[in-house]
Amino acid sequence: MAANSNDFSVPTVQLLAPDGTFAPNEAAEEFVPYFERLTDADHERFYREMVVIRRFDREAANLQRQGQLALWVPSHGQEAAQVGSAFATRPQDHIFPSYREHVVGKMRGLDVVDVLRMLKGLTLGGWVPEENGNFHLYTLVLASQTLHATGYAMGMQFDGATATGDPERDEAVIVYFGDGASSQGDASEALVFAASYQTPQVFFLQNNGWAISVPASRQSRTPFALRGHGFGMRSNRIDGNDVFASYAVTAKHLDDARAGRGPALIEAMTYRVGAHTTADDPTKYRLDADLADWVAKDPIVRLKAYLENRGVAQSFLDDVEQEAADFASDARKRALEVVAPDQDVIFDNVYAEANATLVEERAWFEAYEASFEEAQS
Amino acid sequence: MTMIQDRPMAASANRETMTMATAVNRALGDAMADDDTVLVFGEDVGALGGVFRVTDGLTARFGERRCFDTPLAEAGIMGMAVGMAMNGMRPVVEMQFDAFAYPAFEQVVSHVAKMGNRTRGRVRMPIVIRIPYGGGIGGVEHHCDSSESYYVHTPGLLVVAPATPQDAYSLLRSAIRSPDPVVFLEPKKLYWAKGEVDTSLEVPIGAAHVIRAGTDATLIAYGTSVPIALAAADAAEEEGRSLQVVDLRSLTPYDDATVDAAVRSTGRAVVIAEAPGFASVSSEIAARVSERCFSWLEAPVRRVTGFDIPFAPPKLERYYLPDVDRVLDAVDTLNWDA
């Protein structure tokens, strides 16, 4: 880019064309070796994860419409960005999600019913990261998690848990955020701190076009990928609907982070095909034509075409459909079975150690509740 | 200034006279020596040793891994501390001044305070947030706030405000050991006041204590207002009134038992605090004492606080700050003819 020019364009890394042809573009060249790590079984895993989560996503939205969930946060359209990047993580890595990365959680071992339980209104947070593949809690306050990720990565440096030269052991962090969250001061501060301390960390920005009703153009005049350079870190824009690009670019930057080469920023160009949440109505602010353009670039259709071109068995595709249906129906069944915890659980774990004020309030509450039971008996 | 020396203290080789700033510095150094996971960071805390020199020498002694300067961004400092605590560290962060902590407020309220609850107790936040606070030093605007009410109103946080070098030392050690996050409010105007410190003395968080015996009325104070309460009690004694003084030391958890027992013993209470009085720690104390000690009270609970205005400019701060005369004026209204 020429100095003082208004040309802020950046190349977009793409390996898989929208028609399913494997055709890495120029920007993708350095990432092809990372793609070549993948086996046919990995390609099939990508497809399976994407199809299964989309079916689950639809089932969860149905649960919300039927009054079973207070809210649902759809991920339809962003499956390639999420599946590819999640597959690039290693078991020892830590993942800091935003709140739409259901498949990332699933791939790290999270039971999706834990997400449903929270959105059913029965828990805060809802899971223990260390028991769920180091998949940290969803963060509804935008961009706060970018700083937690940076602090966690600094802890890895402090512990000597990274940059030892052993990729099987060296740890790294990936943090998910979005085009809207990028405007938060916390996001900029996280990028400053990460660059300053050279943390082992990948910032994975899913640019899905919309922050509820506000287009990405309101957040930034330049591609978000360019911002990374301003903060002093390697940055790439990728086709976020190309699962191979998402995998390969994330794998490279995570490997570099693990090896002590510092943080990186990835901007994944994708699209929120559904609403922001089930409380939102995108027809009020979005053009049908825009949506149709992106639906034509659907990440699952693209990967399916690739697999078919390579002669994947129809029985595999059928099996995946069945697995998706089974997964969704199992999640639905178990979500319906989730029961509310005891009422006085709300007093638990506010502090690690007993707090006299809370002890007194809880005792009052229990006696008050018990007084009704006595009155009824 | 009246110093608190009347507490019985066992003879100990660990006793030494020092300023509160030195006591805080000593506590940080001792905690870092005891526990490798204790990290001190913030703005100017490294080579400079902090704008109040409270972290002086820590980088030289423990290295830049343990005590280091950060980029100039309070939300960044706090959010980074959250991530470090998740990863097993015990961060002790410095917010350079009370009002400079506000950019970090979202991280404190939504994450530091709530993470333990959101993970059902599995991911605790053993973070200490040190904040030099309050006025009385002729500071320019945005350098003199008493911001304790914001923090005590947030479930999940512990909040302490020492008034002596001893409590500063012992409470900071307790705070760093605590599995819960602690907002540690250091009264700037008392940084250079000296007192005796016994480094072997433990002071638990949540324990108020009576620092001056008295029979006619109880003055309830914390942090910056403690020396005022003591001076007022001295002055009242000359006028023939015996005032008891309670130093809260911890605001959360609040020590109802000690305060209630004290107020019931005298039947009269005045709460003294530098912060604006409306919807504040002082109003909470007045409400609790009124609810719990009503039958013992000879007069309504009075409060002597800062006005409900922005902290006054340096040359006018004396008109804002509670002082001995205002306390005595309040004491005079406690229905003595009853």
Structure description:
The complex is a heterodimer of chains A (377) and B (338). By secondary structure, chain A is α/β, with parallel strands linked by helices. Chain A is built from 14 helices and eight strands. In chain A, β7, α10 and β8 form a beta-alpha-beta unit. In chain A, α2 packs across α3, α2 runs antiparallel to α12 and α3 packs parallel to α10. The model of chain A has no long low-confidence stretch (mean pLDDT 95). Chain B has 338 residues and is α/β, with parallel strands linked by helices. In chain B, strands 3-2-4-5-7-6-12 form a seven-stranded mixed β-sheet, sandwiched between helices. Chain B has a five-stranded mixed β-sheet with strand order 9-11-10-13-14, sandwiched between helices. In chain B, α1 runs parallel beside α7 and α9 crosses α10. The longest helix of chain B has 15 residues. Chain B is globular, with a radius of gyration of 20 Å. The N terminus of chain B is likely disordered.
What spatial form of chain B do the alpha-carbon principal axes imply?
A: globular
Average pLDDT rating of chain A: 95
The number of distinct β-strands of chain B equals: 14
Shape of chain A: globular
**Helicity level of chain B, as a percent range?**
25-40%
GO molecular function (chain B): branched-chain 2-oxo acid dehydrogenase activity; magnesium ion binding
Keywords (chain B): Oxidoreductase
Pfam families (chain B): Transket_pyr, Transketolase_C
Enzyme class (chain B): oxidoreductase
What is shown here, in short?
Chain A: Its cofactor is thiamine diphosphate. Chain A has helices at 32-35, 40-65, 79-87, 102-107, 112-119, 144-159, 185-197, 216-219, 224-231, 243-258, 288-295, 299-309, 314-337, 356-376, and strands at residues 12-13, 94-96, 173-178, 201-207, 210-211, 214-215, 234-239, 264-269. With 377 residues, chain A is an alpha/beta fold.
